[in-house]
């Protein structure tokens, strides 16, 4: 394993979707550094009147633009173009005075910005290419943690599906691209819909009802016709025979290829539907006792005490029957069912986490409908994340003081989860974010690790192999420190100044109208 040198960071620091650059937002500038060589390639100055707090900081889908959003203004800037006429768009007063946006982010293109107002007042889509905005009233969700569940973009055609709440009824609407004109709207046959999502192939629009309403998932065709309503497992096991009077759907998760949909409820059984006919294809039942065998690996975490440094985390493959540790009974409120569901990029494996067993990660073979691996930790598992481009490579993040400065990476060919220990690279017990660096599959798996002061990269290769960032490793001096935040020393950009739609044409650098007068 090779670590890069430690670099200056802030609370707003993100790798680009393609994994080629790292952007860091400081008080008045955005610093962009290339992963290859770790050299600064651009420093973008923000306007003097831009003041915090920062509500959103994100990359565009193409990894060419950056979005910085405050309470009363949004800036979209070119991440790589250092010329004087580089792209810079400004949206002022995107929401009503006295309120703040609940969500700000890119839409389906670099030229589209979505803004969700607090209190569910409106959902606005700003077109940076035409300086126009489309506003839709009464989006159902407006809390920052669940705002993304009320809208979804159809792949390829880029149609917007929006879930709204009008006069006590759930409404669905379809809006075209790029003008976002209303094409169809109808009342959903749900009592309290919890989300809307397009399938990855764009064939189905899926809406699911609240767990309090039982098992109810609706499948619509792209033109808004109901194809099927799923009301729960067809032949539930004896222990779940009373599922009709219990809580319903908590999570729905499509496989990457769109051929299957996993539905998790408050039981330990994961229902997987085949999307060719929208029928139940298989059921994954999480056992309370684990019997190791050749096709099932059960790894138990072992924590050793080190007097010279941090604790040592290793994993032992058990050959005996073992039961995962249940949730402590002193919880103020019982938590049951699924906590998360994640499918890998090849759609071959599914990772799940249960509220009943919070310290256990379950990994399933989606093709054979068999349990392939179970990872037993001492602390609760906080997050499971598959690599976006490299199949069957899983990142596990646990919570607790004993997991400060360490994450784990698992793949089917490894001898248990691999520990990535980085506490010695950060000062203090501050929380460190761990994200995959979205490099293409030929590159080795790499991680982005950051706290509020510093960040570094970790490549899961042997010490004698090359890392994605070249020779800039942690054992070498910080040769780029002189260039870190200086806006006077920039590496010349090699990319052209392109229109944000990605058409390859030169951009018009005229300033956009601040208040977007041409609203529909």
Automatic annotation (TrEMBL):
SUPFAM superfamilies: Tricorn protease domain 2. It comes from the Eukaryota. GO terms for cellular component: microtubule organizing center; MWP complex. Residues 493-520 are annotated as: Disordered. Coiled coil: none annotated. SMART domains: WD40. InterPro entries: Centrosome-WD_assoc (IPR052778), WD40/YVTN_repeat-like_dom_sf (IPR015943), WD40_rpt (IPR001680). GO terms for biological process: microtubule anchoring at mitotic spindle pole body. PANTHER family: WD REPEAT PROTEIN 8-RELATED (PTHR16220), WD REPEAT-CONTAINING PROTEIN WRAP73 (PTHR16220:SF0). This is WD40 repeat-like protein. It comes from Lasiosphaeria miniovina.
């Amino acid at each position: 394993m090779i670590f890069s040198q430690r670099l200056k960071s802030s609370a707003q620091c993100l790798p680009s979707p393609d994994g080629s650059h790292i952007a860091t937002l400081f008080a008045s500038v955005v610093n962009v550094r290339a992963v290859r060589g770790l050299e600064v390639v651009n420093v973008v100055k923000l306007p003097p009147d831009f003041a915090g707090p920062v509500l959103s900081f994100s990359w565009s889908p193409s990894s060419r633009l950056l979005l910085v959003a405050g309470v009363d203004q949004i800036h979209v800037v070119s991440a790589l173009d250092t010329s004087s006429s580089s792209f810079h768009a400004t949206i002022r007063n995107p929401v009503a005075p006295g309120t703040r946006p609940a969500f700000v982010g890119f839409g389906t293109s670099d030229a589209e910005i979505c803004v969700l107002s607090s209190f569910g007042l409106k959902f606005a889509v700003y077109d940076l290419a035409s300086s126009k905005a489309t506003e839709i009233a009464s989006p159902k969700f407006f809390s920052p943690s669940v705002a993304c569940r009320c809208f979804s973009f159809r792949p390829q055609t880029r149609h917007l599906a929006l879930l709204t709440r009008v006069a006590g009824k759930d409404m669905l609407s379809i809006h075209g691209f790029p003008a976002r004109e209303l094409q169809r709207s109808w009342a959903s046959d749900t009592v309290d819909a919890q989300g809307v999502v397009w399938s990855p192939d764009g064939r189905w629009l899926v809406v699911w009802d609240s767990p309090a309403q039982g098992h109810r998932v609706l499948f619509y065709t792209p033109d808004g016709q109901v194809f099927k309503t799923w009301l729960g497992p067809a032949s539930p096991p004896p222990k779940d025979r009373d599922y009709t009077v219990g809580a319903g759907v908590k999570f729905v998760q499509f496989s990457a290829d769109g051929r299957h949909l996993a539905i998790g409820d408050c039981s330990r059984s994961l229902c997987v539907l085949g999307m060719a006919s929208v029928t139940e294809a298989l059921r994954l039942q999480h056992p309370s006792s684990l019997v190791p065998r050749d096709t099932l690996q059960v790894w138990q975490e072992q924590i050793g005490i080190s007097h010279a440094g941090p604790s040592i985390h290793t994993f032992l493959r058990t050959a005996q029957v073992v039961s995962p540790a249940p949730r402590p009974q002193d919880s103020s409120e019982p938590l049951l069912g699924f906590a998360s569901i994640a499918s890998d990029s090849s759609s071959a494996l599914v990772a799940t986490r249960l509220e009943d067993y919070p310290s256990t990660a379950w990994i399933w073979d989606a093709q054979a409908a068999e349990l392939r691996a179970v990872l037993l930790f001492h602390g609760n598992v906080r997050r499971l994340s598959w690599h976006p481009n490299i199949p069957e490579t899983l990142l596990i993040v646990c919570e607790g003081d004993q997991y400060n400065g360490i994450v784990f990476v698992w793949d089917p060919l490894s001898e248990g989860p691999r520990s990535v220990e980085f506490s010695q690279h950060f000062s203090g017990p501050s929380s460190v974010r761990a994200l995959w660096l979205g490099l293409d599959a030929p590159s080795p798996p790499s991680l982005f690790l950051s706290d509020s002061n510093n960040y570094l990269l970790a490549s899961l290769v042997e010490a004698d192999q090359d890392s994605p960032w070249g020779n800039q490793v942690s054992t070498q001096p910080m040769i780029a420190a002189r260039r870190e935040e200086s806006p006077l020393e920039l590496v010349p950009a090699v990319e052209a100044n392109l229109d944000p739609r990605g058409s390859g044409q030169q951009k018009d650098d005229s300033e956009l109208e601040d208040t977007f007068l041409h609203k529909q």
